[in-house]
Specification:
Layout lengths: L11 H30 L6 H20 L2 H23 L4 H35 L1
């Protein structure tokens, strides 16, 4: 869509944002891998799904800063709280890992769906602007 916009040239700020995005994404990937391996080695595999969700939620705070989007802050909070609730319930409640994994998965799916709807609304707005 950016190519359809008038004067869509790559600026220094765009290049900087892309580098920061790559750095954040790489850090997220390494953190997820390290947490998953550590939890498996500690025989605490039941925490892997909520731990991954927590890393994903926390990375969105960085993305909010890089892309100046308030929505990312809300989604980061939503996903992080869902992950922390899952961790808490696994540690203190008598619930199955499958139930908590499903709960955390639903929380993350809801956040992802909201993000998708937001991006779709942006695309529609851009399409209307460029086709007019």
């Amino acid at each position: 869509m950016a190519k359809k916009l008038p004067n869509s040239q790559t600026t220094h700020a765009d290049a900087s944002r892309r580098r920061l995005f790559a750095l954040i994404f790489s850090g997220e990937t390494l953190t997820i891998a390290a947490a998953s391996i550590a939890l498996h080695l500690l025989h605490e595999s039941k925490y892997i799904i909520p731990a991954i969700a927590l890393v994903v939620g926390l990375h969105l705070y960085f993305m909010a800063k890089v892309f100046s989007r308030d929505l990312d802050k809300y989604l980061a909070t939503w996903v992080s709280i869902g992950a922390l609730v899952g961790i808490y319930l696994l540690a203190h409640a008598h619930v199955t890992t499958a139930h908590i994994s499903a709960f955390v998965g639903i929380v993350v799916a809801m956040g992802t769906s909201m993000y998708g709807l937001y991006m779709s609304s942006i695309e529609r707005r851009i399409s209307k602007t460029t086709s007019a």
